[in-house]
């Protein structure tokens, strides 16, 4: 067996395992290395559930990157498993707060469905 690889991926959490999976599909020889044997539960993207937000309050620059979430649908088809539950998002806070204002700005910039801000 040859020990030559086209690409080495160090760390096989969410990002590394996705990179490994998609690189392997190109026919390249990939070496994926992790400190623990995957699947393990010691990384930051492991365990039961994670959220993906489109209206990113931190900054609208994340939104195009977040669109990669659609790859989960491909993975659902290929694995015949339900992996992604799409819901709306509820941002709570004062209208001018970082979270509410930032999420609204992100939604507006990227034409995401965004209901008016309600005050209670
Ligand atoms: C508790 C928690 C909750 C989070 N919730 C969310 C969320 O809901 N939504 C969200 O978008 N983000 C969330 N994050 C941020 C999340 O970490 C990132 O979004 C993303 O999942 C990180 O993926 P990753 O593949 O880069 O890292 P990881 O999934 O942590 O993968 C890194 C991998 O590298 C391996 N590794 C590390 N060091 C070495 C080494 N020296 N040698 C070999 N292997 C190594 C680890 O074992 C691990 O498998 C959360 C983070 C934490 C800690």
Structure, explained:
This protein is 31% helix and 7% strand. The protein is mainly alpha-helical and 120 residues long. It folds into two domains: 1-47, no CATH class; 51-120, no CATH class. β1 (7-10), α1 and β2 form a beta-alpha-beta unit. The mean pLDDT is 89.
Helices, strands, pairings?
Elements: E1 7-10, H1 14-25, E2 30-33, H2 63-66, H3 71-79, H4 98-109
Parallel strand pairs: 1-2
The structure holds flavin-adenine dinucleotide (FAD).
Residues 10-16, 33-36, 42-45, 50-52 line the site of flavin-adenine dinucleotide.
Number of strands: 2
What separation lies between the terminal Cα atoms?
67 Å
Rg, Cα atoms, Å: 19 Å
Helix content: 25-40%
Can you tell me the residue ranges where pLDDT is under 50 for at least 5 consecutive residues?
Answer: none
């Amino acid at each position: 067996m040859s020990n030559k690889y086209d690409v080495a991926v160090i760390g096989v959490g969410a990002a590394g395992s996705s990179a490994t999976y998609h690189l392997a599909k190109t026919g390249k020889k990939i070496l994926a290395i992790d400190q623990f044997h995957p699947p393990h539960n010691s990384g930051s993207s492991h365990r039961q559930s994670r959220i993906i937000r489109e209206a990113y309050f931190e900054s609208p620059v994340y939104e195009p990157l977040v669109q990669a979430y659609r790859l989960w649908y491909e993975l659902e088809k290929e694995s015949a498993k339900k992996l992604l539950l799409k819901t709306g998002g509820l941002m709570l806070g004062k209208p001018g707060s970082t979270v509410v204002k930032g999420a609204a700005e992100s939604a507006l910039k990227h034409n995401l469905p965004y209901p008016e801000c309600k005050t209670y």
